[in-house]
Specification:
The complex is a heterodimer. Chain A is an alpha+beta fold. Chain A is built from 15 helices and twelve strands. Chain B has six helices and ten strands; from the N terminus they run βββαββαβαααβαβββ. In chain B, helix 6 links the parallel strand 7 and strand 8. In chain B, helix 4 crosses helix 5. The two termini of chain B are about 20 Å apart. At the A-B interface, helix 1, helix 11 and helix 12 of A face helix 2 of B.
Chain lengths: ~400, ~230
């Protein structure tokens, strides 16, 4: 078959019967768009999470008694620094502060700003902060969600924490934490260690946990074992576990969408299959006519394959481009709520653009294979029946 | 040219109610002969045309066209035979409604190895022969019954086939268009084509060219008459 004549005829059929294909393309674009959005969001969240956790301490340890977290003695630090391979051992005060009226809560993290910083993003942020005023008055760094919440409650420059003894402690809002950390720091407040201790009314000599780094990854398991040997009542959390917890949360939410996708695509493919299989369908007659005027089964399958390929590729490109714009330029309104919802403060993240070949090929295969099967199987069935029957 | 030997066609062969559409048909058709298959609906005329055109396969017997056994051809060869040797004109025209006249006429040539300019040239000649060239760019939906018939004729002629098969060609035409159709058949006969027409239209009783009328009844040939 001379290709230029074949493709000329293919384009004629596609163009002249465009109304027949518009519905299929429209539904295909929606399906690809949804699938692409879900895969783009979960992949981007995982990337952002990896980048955010990169700047977090490798381990945080705290004391556990009878399965309950209790305050951690500060003298543990002296013992931990003796372990070879451990660096940047930092005391932390960590806990939720509840804003009573709406039952929203902030995550307060008190760190020793004068100690070696374990949190590299915080170090970067502090370079831009006026340290003199930050330490002259009680001050804090707040996540974007916290800042928005406080502004909404008329706490623009400072916030008064209610202490356990009933008095109030005014703390100035020095700066907002970078947006890029919103995934885990949206509801976070970072403040000097002593200030956090005062808000939580911690006694002298105790903190809530200790952050530390182990630069050599290969030593991580050994260090955990050593910590357990050193303290019988220690709980060690490494950042891989945090990553896994977030990852499975997003995978779970993405999985729900994939189930919806499977239901939608199955329905759509059944409709397509039905369209071609119908006893008196226009497609059936068209195939019968072409067979009667000398087209072979092979010619028919070739024509329908290319016709489907054009529909699949144009829907794929359109769906992926729309999803890219929706997720990475418009920050996926509505879908973002579903993925990030559940936190107590409104969270907004900017999705880091990711276009991985693996994701694109998965989208294409998840969509194209069932599409081709739903069209070509009934087409083949019609093509092998006598043309006279197909033309009825 | 065409040798039909002991052809039987049974529909629903393996079911409890098989239907014998053709019973032991033997017929020889010479080159450039015009055959009129007559008989009432259900007598087996269209089934016989389908078997000659290789649109269906006989249950038993053989059909040889120009020395080639076409009754047992695999699909690829049967399609090539249809494309090369047969010009089929259907009762309901069977045109692709969304396409224009010219686009319908080029359709049989698409699987050939011809390039687009040659295909267009052949289509133009065919349209002129069928008297539909002036409607080349109009879609089938915009045509009258007679114009659709001429488009179907042009499509049947575009591959320059040796054999023209017509199944109830005038059933959907008025008398004027039916006469025009017979005029075209006459020209085709003069060009050396072999023509087989299945019809029960009395207009075919007075043809301006020599023909053989084969009367069919209940799947059998009951009478052959030269005219």
């Amino acid at each position: 078959m001379q290709n230029n004549a074949f493709f000329h005829f293919l384009s004629l059929l596609l163009f002249k019967q465009k109304n027949k294909h518009i519905g299929a393309i429209f539904i295909s674009v929606i399906i690809i768009f949804l699938l692409s959005c879900v895969l783009f969001i979960s992949s981007s969240l995982q990337k952002s999470l990896q980048a955010t956790l990169q700047n977090q301490p490798d381990f945080t340890i705290s004391r556990m008694q009878a399965g309950r977290a209790v305050n951690t003695p500060i003298e543990w630090i002296e013992k931990i620094v003796q372990i070879d391979g451990v660096s940047a051992v930092t005391p932390r005060v960590y806990g939720r502060y509840f804003f009573a009226p709406n039952e929203n809560s902030f995550l307060i993290v008190g760190v020793d700003f004068f100690d070696e910083q374990s949190n590299r993003s915080l170090q970067e942020l502090m370079e831009k902060t006026d340290l003199k005023s930050f330490f002259a008055t009680p001050s804090m760094l707040v996540g974007e969600g916290v800042q928005k919440f406080m502004i909404a409650h008329y706490y623009k420059d400072e916030f008064s924490f209610k202490l356990p003894n009933g008095s109030f402690k005014k703390v100035a809002i020095a700066q907002q934490l970078p947006n890029s950390t919103n995934l885990i720091a949206n509801d976070m407040i970072v403040m000097p260690l002593d200030l956090a201790k005062e808000i939580f009314a911690l006694e002298e000599g105790v903190i809530t946990d200790i952050a530390l780094n182990v630069p050599n990854d290969a030593e991580w398991d050994n260090i955990v074992a050593k910590l357990h040997l050193l303290f019988y009542d220690v709980q060690v959390i490494d950042k891989r576990e945090i990553f896994k917890a977030y990852k499975s949360l997003y995978n779970y939410k993405g999985g729900l969408f994939l189930i919806l996708y499977l239901i939608t695509i199955t329905t759509f493919m059944l409709i397509l299959y039905q369209r071609y299989s119908m006893v008196y369908s226009a497609e059936k007659k068209e195939i019968g006519i072409l067979r009667a005027i000398g087209w072979s089964i092979q010619d028919i399958l070739k024509l329908k394959f290319y016709e489907t390929l054009v529909i699949v590729i144009s829907s794929f490109i359109l769906g992926v481009v729309l999803a890219y714009i929706f997720v990475f330029i418009l920050d996926a309104p509505l879908l973002q709520e579903i993925f990030l919802g559940g936190s107590n403060l409104e969270n907004r993240v900017s999705f880091v653009p990711t276009l991985e070949f693996g994701i694109l090929s998965s989208i294409f295969l998840f969509f194209a294979l069932p599409f081709f099967a739903s069209v070509l199987i009934p087409v083949w069935k019609i093509a092998v029946t006598p043309p006279k029957e197909a033309m009825l | 040219m065409i040798e039909i030997e002991n052809i039987n066609k049974i529909f629903n062969e393996n079911s409890s109610e098989p239907f014998e559409a053709l019973k032991d048909i033997t017929l020889h058709i010479a080159k450039n002969e015009a055959i009129i298959l007559s008989g009432v609906s259900g007598s087996g005329k269209s089934t016989l045309l389908s078997l000659i055109a290789s649109l269906d396969k006989p249950s038993s017997g053989k059909i040889v066209v120009d020395g080639e056994l076409i009754s047992k051809l695999p699909d690829l060869h049967a399609s090539a035979y249809r494309a090369k040797s047969i010009g089929f004109i259907f009762q309901h025209f069977n045109l692709l409604e969304a396409l224009s006249v010219e686009e319908n006429i080029i359709a049989p040539l698409i699987p050939s190895r011809l390039d687009m300019p040659t295909i267009k040239k052949q289509a133009q000649e065919s349209m002129q022969r069928a008297g539909i060239a002036h409607k080349a760019s109009q879609t089938i939906r915009e045509l009258s019954g007679g114009e659709k018939q001429r488009c179907a004729i042009a499509r049947a002629l575009v591959t320059n086939p040796k054999l023209i098969i017509c199944d109830e060609p005038t059933a959907n035409l008025d008398k004027a268009n039916s006469l025009k159709f017979i005029e075209i058949l006459s020209t085709l006969k003069a060009l050396g084509k072999t023509i087989i027409v299945a019809t029960h239209d009395p207009i075919f009783d007075t043809l301006p060219f020599e023909s053989r009328v084969i009367k069919m009844e209940d799947g059998r040939i009951v009478n052959i008459k030269d005219r």
